[in-house]
Amino acid sequence: MAVVSTPTTLTRALSAMDNAEVLRIRNDFPVLNQTVNGRPLIYLDSGATSQNPLSVIEAEQEFYEQRNAAVHRGAHHLAVEATEVFEDARQTVADFVGAAYEEIVWTSNATEGLNVISYALSNAALWAAQGRGDARLRDLALGPGDEIVVTEMEHHANLIPWQELAYRTGATLRHIPLDDAGVLRMDEAAEIVGERTRLLAFTHASNVLGTINPVSDLVTLARRAGALVVLDACQSAPHLALDVKQLDVDFAVFSGHKMLGPTGVGVLYGKQELLDVLPPVQTGGSMITTVTMERAEYLPAPQRFEAGTQKISQAVALAAAVNYLTETGIDRVHRWESGLGQRMVAGLEAIDGIRVLGPAAGQDRIGLAAFDVAGVHAHDVGQFLDARGIAVRVGHHCAQPLHRRLGLTATTRASAYLYNTTDDVDEFLDAVSGVRAYFRA
Hints:
Elements: H1 7-14, H2 19-26, E1 35-36, E2 39-40, E3 42-43, H3 54-67, H4 77-97, E4 104-107, H5 110-130, H6 137-140, E5 147-151, H7 160-169, E6 172-176, H8 186-192, E7 197-203, H9 215-225, E8 228-232, H10 244-247, E9 251-255, E10 266-270, H11 272-275, E11 288-291, E12 296-298, H12 312-328, H13 330-349, E13 354-356, E14 368-373, H14 378-386, E15 390-391, E16 393-395, H15 400-405, E17 411-415, H16 422-432, H17 435-438
């Protein structure tokens, strides 16, 4: 069930987090209480996968110990209880992002969610040509002459599905370019998003640059063109207060494992009037009303897109993660992480031979920083830091076009979360300051 605000939680929401509170929070995360290469672990890779608090681990374990059964299928006691906690989890997540219960579809991850949208739009064209489904499908069907627009900073998960949709339908894929600082060229965006645009897909916050994109401005361009809007919220849902209704996006996706939840579960939000019209992508049990040997009729959303046995325990655990973030205060988390991000960027900019990607110190960003060390490959930087117990991400971060635009093949990325302290950041910066000397760059 969703967390109910109390005087205590409301008071906490107004207060700022500090290192003392973060150290108490860290005690909730068993994996952080270990050493790596003889050093206390400093985990700065939450942008890839966050760690799990005990409440999340215990929620999944409790499901298997007390309620393990198939949902929506049985009338016995365990099946009823399993269905209740599964659907309670859906409501908890819906409340967290300002959506209606029927607008939350469980997926395995955000990548699957984006592919569901892509293939549902492909099927819209097929169904419309066959005279199947709702008459509104014709308005959703893409074809030659139509355009899909993305940005040059997209994660591959929010690029390749649209490449493939363009291949399947004959539509044209275009992109909004970046300037040399990694900022969207909104002047060009206003020219690119036009009367042929049928879909605009973009990231809320870049997993490489840390940039928080101007959602309102981009949505305005899409609405002017009559285009659908798809928001990649993987790097925003764990860190920012997210209200999909206020943002006025048509679809949004995010993953559980980036927001204190387990792997294997993600969320697809879609406006109900769109989800109920779009054809399903996977078919089978649990998503049908009537089946004959010749045809099937499908349930409305969300079950329409949830064929087969679902990720039940993972959904329950994700709801526990959402409750943890809600109890801590997502706005407080954002303010704390933003401060850590600014500390990282300012410190990195002060080190000779370091190039930081994305907004400079003092400009708004999420709590991550990707950087290049002159003369040292990112993988060597990562191994150097790991030897000191510091976990970071290295590589192209599933954003090859972005790196190519900035003249790089790989970077090192440090990403903080609510369990990181200013001491973590300072130790990281101290270690980075010794990289070039160690490698004699």
